[in-house]
Amino acid sequence: MPTHDDDRSARLIGIAFLLLAPPAYGLLTLAFGMDANWDLRNYHWYNGYAMLTGRIGRDLLAAQMPTFYSPFLDVPFYWLATHLPARAAGFLWGTLQGINLLLLYLLVSFSLRNVPALKRTLIAMALAVAGGLGGGTLGLIGTTFQDNVVSLGVLGAAAVIAGSLPGILDGRPLPSFARVAAAGLLAGAAMGLKNPTVIYAVGLCLGFLALPARPWRRLWLAFFFGIGVLVGLGLGGGVWMAHLWHDYGNPVFPHMNHIFKSPFAALSDYVNVSFFPPGLWQRLFFPFVFTFSPLTVGEVPFFDLRVLALFVLVPVGVVCAAVTGMLGKRNEWLTAVPATRFLLAAMTVTYALWVAMFCIYRYLVPLEMLAPLALVMAVGLLPLARRLRIGLAVVLVAVVQLTVQPADWGRVAWADRWVEADVPAIADPDDTMVLMAGYWAISHVIPSFPARVTFVRIQSNFLQPDSVGNGYLAILKDKVASHRGPFLMLSTIPDTPGAAKAAELLGLRLDPQRCRPIPNNLGETLNLCAVDREGGKRETVE
Questions:
Q1: Which residues on adjacent β-strands are paired with residue 511?
Q2: Cα gap 250→259, rounded to integer Å
Q3: Which of 105, 45, 104 is nearest to 73 (CA)?
């Protein structure tokens, strides 16, 4: 029987975990190395810089298509990394991401209400740590992809809901609906900051329909959660969506442009289909594919069994629980019934939406974090002796964790500053326009240029100089044609010949004899070349 000392020990251990887990995650970031991923070099660094310095609308397509993505998550990282030494910024960014462990701890604790306090605390710590050490999650630690930042809204929403159970099932309507609306606000804010998080907002909303409550109660809970999502969406993404609507006539520009029909983009949905499985059977049984062939869902290799284990165990457990119930047999689950039904239903819907809409593993990382708890929940549904189920859950979580091989999207040794680029002197920076070409990630060096230089990308994954059906080309051509000062061209060295051809389509000539290198610490050396117009001024790169 639990004693007062056990309860006190549980509280002290829990508080220690809540205080120490995030900075421990920050220290782990330092051990992994400094983030140098492709997206950081392509747009996360530049977008934060552009937002803070008022360059939005002045430069054109500097970060390719992601130029149009919300910069609000990139701003705090850019500010930290430009005001602090790189290691300090990395530690703080990793500590922020470590808050996921706190939310997982709370969620597990709420799901084990009937377990004695000390045992509940230790189990919650173990499952929270396992949730933070998945193959995708470890790969994202200290990076700027933001999937493990918006996860704070997802896990926060799940923790609020689990903490409100079972009271919201039949308690007073006003406080119950207020709680789920608050949870919806967290999920909606995450969705507003990064749109693919929509799959979690929908999954959590539909999870209410699986709760053991009266049908109308379930619908009202889902309804008020949805209201919270809409408010959160407005708070997290409303300003940026209004900007895109005002400037381009599409609040998620350029995505879904086949619906909004903005004249500044092609009539396309702009969905990345490169990771979609080639056939129906591969999509139906996708975890069996990507678990052992990770490049089908991402750019780099990794290994993690937890999604595959859930894909097998959840339907088996649900069927077993249903059959056991129909036979009138009693089977006490390992976790609280309302939390179990809610979370497994929400995760099932989320996964189904992910495999239908994205198939990019990074977007599944919040679900990966939830997986250790979900595995315990699924094993708890099996018609086995309680001790056997506990043993199976322990072995399963241990095997999953011990076989993890984390992803690596690109890291370098820690430098004094996160981005260091040696830009050559420019004779007339106030009147110079730097054209950008090629399809590689190069915008991270822009903040190292003089502030008055204007950047226009004439070749990108959104637009090329010979594009058809994309009205943005007229804006680009007009900006280049109206420029009266000197031009330069920025590209990678291998992309320089292609940059020259792109310049020709705009009536310009790149001079390969007047190029200078731009060494930088995050990627390959770039090329800065002079560009001439017929009868125009010849720019020199000193």
A1: 530
A2: 9
A3: 45
Which band of pLDDT confidence, cut at 50, 70 and 90, is reported for residue 328?
Answer: confident
| pTM score of the predicted model | 0.95
Tell me the torsion sign for CA atoms 506, 510, 515, 521. positive
Q: Which residues contact 114 (CB under 8 A, 6 or more apart)?
A: 336
Least Cα distance to 372 among 152, 177, 101, 156 occurs for 101
Q: Which of 465, 516, 466 is nearest to 490 (CA)?
A: 516
Task: Count CA atoms within 13 Å of residue 232 on its CB side.
Answer: 30
How far apart are the C-alpha atoms of 20 and 26, rounded to whole Å?
A: 10
CA distances from 37 to 13, 42, 442, 444, 505 (A): 36, 9, 12, 11, 31
Q: 376 with 313: CB under 8 angstroms?
A: no
Residue 81's nearest CA partner among 68, 96, 98, 69 is 96
Q: Phi, psi at residue 455, to the nearest 5°?
A: -120, 130
The predicted model gives 78-82 an average pLDDT of: 98
- 461's CB contacts (< 8 A; 6+ apart) are 64, 65, 439
